Amino acid sequence: MERDIPTYSLFLLLVFVMIPLTISYYYSLGLKKDIIWSTIRGTAQLFFVGLVLTYLFDLRPIIGIPIMLSVMIIVATFHARKKGEEFPNVFISILSGLVIIELTVLTMWLSFGMISFSPDEVIPMSGMVIGNSMVAMGLALERLKSEFEQNRGQLIAALSLGATPKQAAHLSIKKTLNAALIPNIDQLKTIGLVQLPGMMTGLILGGVAPIVAIKYQLVISISIFSSVSISAIFISMIMYRFFFNQQMQLLKLEDIKKSAND
């Protein structure tokens, strides 16, 4: 079932955009500009990416795939970095984590024959892994800052009683990882029951047999779950150390930011 969607029908979707826009105006939520800008930006980005992918799909896989994956990882790194600008070396840490995760997942897919090394398979699936890993890192960074600020008194008390920074931070790190991983865990629990996942839906709409679509969805869902878990753990275990100095004293975010800028 391969057919094109009329361009004019896409403009009719703007009717749905008007609903949250009206709600934002009525309740004075202050989101009118964000909604309009996000809609315009998202539409433009998708059409631009469509043109880029059309060009990359015509290149040799050994050239097109690395180019697109590099762009994805760099953009994801810049976006996730905003959640943890106070930390030193946050950019290189996120970049390293995303590269390691993507290479590991891609190697697994290719080694076990799950996908072929072609742009139309590698790029969309890798994009889902990179995107979800980016979100997980951003959530972990935000929650990590929140936990250390809210539990500052408990952390200082633990340190004063002789706990090491790792021991004192254990509970905060645990809560951070729970917050970053629970949405993905819940989604995996209800996959196929509450909603048909995006990749599976797309393949079925494209005419692929449901059982084949399910196999692909399982590959990407389990890969995303593992990648998200590793991403959150990776960035949390690296960044929590910056809350402590060499004398095992707890630092504030302002102090961490100053040291990062020095």
What does this structure look like?
It comes from Alkalibacillus salilacus. It holds the Pfam family UPF0014. Belongs to the UPF0014 family. This protein is mainly α and 262 residues long. The chain folds into 2 domains: 1-58, no CATH class; 61-261, no CATH class. Helices cover 77% and strands 0% of the residues. It contains 11 helices and no strands. The protein has helices at 7-12, 14-26, 32-57, 61-81, 90-111, 119-150, 152-160, 165-189, 198-205, 210-239, 253-261. Helix 5 packs across helix 6. The longest helix is centred in the middle third of the chain and has 32 residues, at 119-150. The chain is globular, with a radius of gyration of 22 Å. The model has no long low-confidence stretch (mean pLDDT 87).
Write the layout of secondary structure elements.
Blueprint: H1 7-12, H2 14-26, H3 32-57, H4 61-81, H5 90-111, H6 119-150, H7 152-160, H8 165-189, H9 198-205, H10 210-239, H11 253-261
Short description:
The protein has helices spanning 7-12, 14-26, 32-57, 61-81, 90-111, 119-150, 152-160, 165-189, 198-205, 210-239, 253-261.
Number of helices: 11
Shape: globular
Structure summary, number of beta strands: 0
Radius of gyration: 22 Å
The poorly predicted ranges are none
What structural class do helix, strand and pairing data support?
Answer: mainly alpha
What is the total number of structural domains? 2
Order of helices and strands: HHHHHHHHHHH
Roughly what percent helix? over 70%
Strand content: under 5%
Main sheet makeup: none
Q: Tell me the distance between the termini.
A: 58 Å
Write down the overall mean pLDDT.
Answer: 87
